[in-house]
Amino acid sequence: MSLKHRKQFGVWMDTHHATVIGHADAASHSFSIVGHVENPMTGNNPDEKTAHHHEQGALHHFFKEIARHLTNAEEVHVTGTGTAQEQFIHFLADTPQFKSTATTEDTSNRMSDEGLVAFISGRFH
User: Fold this and answer.
1) CA-CA distance, 104 to 120, in Å (whole number)?
2) Element (H, E) at 77
3) CATH number at residue 51
4) For residue 83, what are the domain limits?
5) H or E stretch covering 23
6) I need a labelling partner for 82 at 20 to 30 A (CA). Which of 10, 60, 91, 122 fits?
7) What parts of the chain have a pLDDT lower than 50?
8) Element (H, E) at 92
């Protein structure tokens, strides 16, 4: 008899990088890295308003790239440094396909991929 696994994901992120943890396939019982996403930071712009719009556009694109890895997510735990996690959780809440996704967050320093997999596994088991 097989048990149905919830679609659970973990994301470690800051404003420059994200690592997404999940189940590699439906039959997998263990978590693994399912993707790395880099934020394409924009260059300096002397016009503050234009620079702000470019920064917001790059951040939105970064969030969309992370979300591409969260196929049919039911639960997402977001961790990392800075305020990017909170902004990402708001992004998910405002995105129709993630409206019913349960999200949790905390703060943690960057860790190795193996350490992150162990951390996320501990959050869901």
Assistant:
1) 12
2) strand 75-80
3) 3.30.420.60
4) 8-17+33-124
5) strand 17-23
6) 122
7) 1-3
8) helix 84-93
